[in-house]
Design a protein that fits this description.
The structure is a homodimer. By secondary structure, the first copy, chain A, is mainly α. The first copy, chain A, is 38% helix and 2% strand. Chain A starts with a helix and ends in a 28-residue tail after the last helix.
């Protein structure tokens, strides 16, 4: 009886919340709010979370997905280009894993069509985790805690790399960041943005940034040339989309990055050479739009960009099942 | 009224729990249960948790305390010797941070008297995080989110290394692992241990292991020679306690490691050369006690050791406050 009464009370609060949301009038803008994650297979998400944090998917036993897509730091490593096995310097800036399910494809050059396909890449890349899919399967297959998890999720105890990347992708699909100030504004809350941020958004639209940075992920929907009006000067040898298509016309086309949580995902561009948002906005204006923003304008756009920081995924640090005597040993050195 | 009734209900449940605990008859043994952590300054613990996970305390921006004392993996890195800045190979196996507040001192050679003193070591060690205390202070001082946290905890906005290490130590003091099967047995639950584990514990006591591995941490209370009956053969150049005292008599004396969660903290010994518990028990028997355990006896002792795995610390992955334009940049390469 007591319990029931409490439930009614909670129901009333929920109903109030819903009706308030219903009262808000959503705006018709080229950027849409980030939807909440819908979890259809909780057990697979939990398994994927463990795998995402497990350095035993690398040769050294030291590097996990979270090493370069650190969920304490906006899903990035906040360095220009990543550190791989044996401290190898990566060729490109690690893109954020946050909201990555909203991108048209994965990697800067879009060479992976899906999160599942992406997840297999770094594991087997000699410059990153430097492992093989076969060894990753052998390691996990030797760990009873994992075998039980895979059996629960996939209905069989014999693991394969598809099951591993399915689970990692399922976890990554939950890594969305709703309810940024900008999204609250989009949903009708006039007080969610400062006047400066609102002016920045207006300028962002009027001067053409929104032509590429649009949709729920404020980017991630097309490949564009880095250096439209002026060429982009970089020490990086990355050629972008051309590496996938083989077409000369695709040289220096990169996937337009999401601007969601861009306050957290410094440094910027595929080579990580822009350290600050101010620098990035200035360079984008000149190279992509042929426009030199004033200091005041840059401040406005940066204020808008900072309003794109959403609620970060919150979850318990996973506890990993221990290896056994049969588990292949990591090889950190030599 | 409704709320009050619910509170009475919870109070009754708590009272029942307490009286059940009071009914259990604790055993008088040379090993005592791990006490629950008592948190006196929650804000300091939360700050310390962020710092523990923050790779910006390293030169590269890539290595955090959690890199080598991974709380997903028993507070260790599960490799023989750790990976430091620029992939340098560490000289010694990373001891677990779990229950480390119960040790008489920190590091294998006891060179740090406290967790606070220990915490400053790896940050400034050129082979580990390769930073300086001054730069660590500069980095955190440049981050408003941290300055606010430090102001809340210490009452001032001007940071120093003492405040940093105080906070890390406060977090580490919470990293205890109570309620292992063995502790439940110690508290009077006859069904908590298998017959094999109980036989293993009896043998552990009767054959002399408990002379060094005793107390709540099943170790951590003294320095002992590695290789009492026979010398320990190792490629490691570590001399142990002698490095601190300068005394020849202290060569190859190491702090007796805790056996709490030893199932999770492989590989074993200061050089990490024993991969399995079976191997470690066999070597310890021969070198320290002059006793060759049978396969059955080793199995019994290992079953006892696995009963020492306690409840792992459970907490939300911390979200770190972002750097600002003023934050000194990490230097991962060169």
């Amino acid at each position: 009886m007591n319990k029931q009464f409490t439930r009614v009370g909670i129901g009333m609060v929920l109903a109030l919340g819903l009706s308030q949301a219903a009262l808000a009038s959503p705006r018709n803008e080229p950027i849409q709010p980030i939807p909440q994650a819908t979890i259809t297979n909780g057990a697979m998400v939990e398994l994927g979370k463990k795998l995402f944090f497990d350095p035993r998917l690398s040769k050294s036993g030291f590097i996990s997905c979270n090493s370069c897509h650190n969920l304490s730091m906006g899903g990035t490593d906040n360095i220009k280009t990543s550190i791989g096995h044996n401290w190898q310097q990566g060729p490109i800036n690690s893109p954020t894993v946050l909201n990555s399910s909203l991108n048209l494809a994965q990697f800067w050059d879009g060479r992976a069509a899906s999160l599942k396909e992406q997840a297999g890449g770094p594991i087997a890349n000699p410059g990153e985790m430097a492992f093989t899919h076969e060894l990753a399967v052998d390691v996990l297959q030797s760990i009873p805690g994992y075998v039980a998890d895979f059996a629960q999720v996939f209905g069989k105890e014999s693991l394969n790399i598809d099951m591993i990347t399915d689970a990692i992708a399922a976890f990554e699909e939950t890594l969305v960041t709703p309810n940024s100030d900008f999204d609250l504004w989009l949903k009708g809350d006039d007080n969610a943005l400062t006047a400066q941020a609102l002016a920045g958004y207006q300028l962002f639209k009027d001067s053409g940034c929104v032509a590429c940075h649009n949709g729920p992920n404020v980017g991630g929907t097309s490949y564009q040339k880095m250096g439209v009006i002026e060429p982009y000067q970089s020490a990086s040898t990355e050629v972008g989309r051309a590496a996938v298509t083989g077409k000369d016309a695709d040289r220096f086309l990169f996937k337009v990055p999401t601007l969601r949580n861009v306050e957290l995902t410094y440094p910027y561009f595929h080579d990580g050479e822009a350290s600050t948002l101010e620098e990035a906005v200035d360079i984008m204006g000149r190279l992509q739009l042929g426009r030199v923003y004033s200091e005041q304008e840059i401040g406005q756009i940066v204020a808008f960009l900072k309003s794109l920081t959403g609620e970060q995924p919150r979850f318990e640090l996973p506890i990993l099942p221990p290896s056994t005597n049969a588990t292949p040993k990591p090889i950190p050195f030599g």
